[in-house]
């Protein structure tokens, strides 16, 4: 694709809205990541809610930054946090802040709702305080809720604002605990418990669908838009990242290691049912199923490091690869806490030395990661390759521990922003570009290099 008349080279942009940071990645037609930007996801000082307009402004700032006076955007796709969202008015202006999926206030709301949540076989995930349903109930009690005309997810807000179209990405509908993934329909009784009204929910669209043309006076004035810019539906960050890796290695499993360890893949079989250790969502650009298994990671490490300064020092050294673990890495002396479960603990016969306890923590976490990998791999044909991404994948000692304890080879994705890059690839695919996903993910060199 040639450079435009204004001298700007063509790119697509992928946006990744994370719990801590929001990133924008620009990818050229060949698949090379040519620019990137990062900002802290803007949260209020007193509690972790997000003002969607502040986030929107930050995203536009970053698009201007990555394009500078060099690039022009042809398409954009946003992926991000799965459960956060807000009520909006007829003009799609936010009426309520977005309650974070990890906000402790969710626990009391969930406790009030839980006894009234009837089981439903088509759910895509378990009921717990993080689900969107809980955020709905909280939002309806906030000032301004009476003027609501729709609910938008935080991840979908910028695409909705750019196109003037209210919608919900299907991989985000799967996180609500009120959507039937088998027939793509809302579970009326659950929606009414949360929002009170089913008509507040916008149409659910497939990831990768073109929503419309991007309209932004600010981006137009900055000269970073290339004619008719397509806005492409993204959705939940982990499925989008897994899809990007699947492009590189069809049938692969992505082990994303950050605040949680999320193991995800694109399974070719449709209609896979969720169970306690397996969340599901629609397949991306396929008739199959996105399968995810989520394990606690950061919380377990925080608990262990808080238990002893000496243990904390040894564990940090092990994770960094500056210290070798002892034999207790192979023994079950540490019982990790699980999502929604009991707190982590050491067994009664656990060793007392800091190195041995730190080794046991490392081994215990590696084993629950292996269990998640096996759960997801069981949904796939053959013997899938395992790729790793996320902040923990940059820690040599952690990756080596996983290899030693599990016996599985792990391929670390060099691209540090897998979700943002995958979102850019989804945007590119929607507008019929054919970028090289291996180049985008840093797994192969550019041909001309």
Automatic annotation (TrEMBL):
CDD domains assigned: ASKHA_NBD_FGGY_FK
Name of this protein: Carbohydrate kinase FGGY N-terminal domain-containing protein
UniProt xrefs under InterPro entries: ATPase_NBD, FGGY_Carb_Kinase, FGGY_N
Gene3D superfamilies: 3.30.420.40
Origin superkingdom: Bacteria
The species this protein was found in: Tsukamurella soli
Stretches assigned to the Carbohydrate kinase FGGY N-terminal domain: 12-240
Keywords per UniProt: Carbohydrate metabolism, Kinase, Transferase, Xylose metabolism
Pfam family, one: FGGY_N
Family recorded in the similarity comment: Belongs to the FGGY kinase family.
């Amino acid at each position: 694709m040639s450079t435009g008349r204004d001298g700007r080279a063509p790119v697509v942009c992928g946006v990744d809205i994370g719990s801590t940071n929001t990133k924008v990645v620009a990818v050229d037609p060949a698949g090379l990541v040519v620019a990137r930007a990062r900002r802290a996801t803007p949260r209020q000082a007193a509690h972790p809610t997000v003002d969607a307009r502040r986030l929107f402004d930050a995203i536009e700032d970053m698009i201007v930054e990555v394009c500078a006076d060099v690039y022009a955007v042809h398409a954009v796709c946003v992926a991000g946090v799965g459960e956060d969202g807000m009520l909006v008015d007829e003009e799609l202006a936010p009426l309520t802040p977005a309650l974070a999926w990890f906000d402790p206030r969710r626990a009391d709301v969930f406790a009030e709702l839980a006894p009234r949540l009837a089981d439903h076989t088509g759910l895509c995930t378990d009921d717990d305080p993080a689900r969107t349903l809980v955020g709905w109930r909280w939002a309806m009690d906030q000032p301004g809720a009476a003027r609501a005309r729709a609910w938008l997810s935080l991840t979908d807000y910028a695409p909705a604002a750019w196109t003037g179209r209210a919608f919900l990405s299907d991989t985000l509908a799967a996180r609500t605990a009120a959507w039937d993934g088998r027939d793509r329909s809302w579970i009326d009784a659950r929606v009414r418990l949360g929002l009170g009204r089913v008509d507040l929910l916008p149409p659910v669209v497939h990831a990768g669908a073109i929503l419309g043309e991007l309209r932004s006076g600010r981006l137009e004035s900055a000269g970073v838009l290339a004619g008719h810019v397509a806005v492409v539906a993204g959705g939940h960050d982990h499925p989008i990242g897994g899809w990007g890796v699947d492009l590189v290695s069809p049938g692969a499993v992505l082990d994303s290691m950050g605040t949680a360890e999320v193991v995800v893949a694109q399974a070719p079989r449709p209609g896979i049912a969720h169970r306690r250790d397996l969340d599901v969502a629609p397949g991306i650009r396929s008739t199959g199923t996105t399968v995810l298994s989520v394990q606690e990671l950061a919380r377990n490490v925080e608990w262990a490091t808080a238990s002893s300064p000496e243990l904390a020092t040894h564990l940090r050294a092990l994770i960094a690869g500056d210290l070798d673990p002892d034999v207790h890495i192979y023994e079950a002396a540490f019982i990790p806490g699980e999502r929604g479960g009991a707190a982590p603990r050491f067994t009664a016969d656990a060793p007392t030395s800091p190195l041995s306890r730190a080794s046991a923590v490392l081994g215990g976490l590696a084993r629950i990661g292996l269990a998640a990998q096996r759960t997801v791999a069981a949904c796939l044909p053959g013997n899938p390759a395992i790729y790793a991404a996320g902040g923990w994948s940059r820690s040599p000692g952690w990756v080596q521990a996983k290899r030693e304890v599990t016996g599985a080879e792990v391929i670390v994705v060099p691209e540090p922003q897998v979700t943002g890059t995958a979102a850019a690839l989804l945007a590119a695919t929607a507008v019929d570009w054919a970028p090289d996903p291996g180049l985008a993910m840093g797994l192969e060199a550019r041909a001309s290099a």
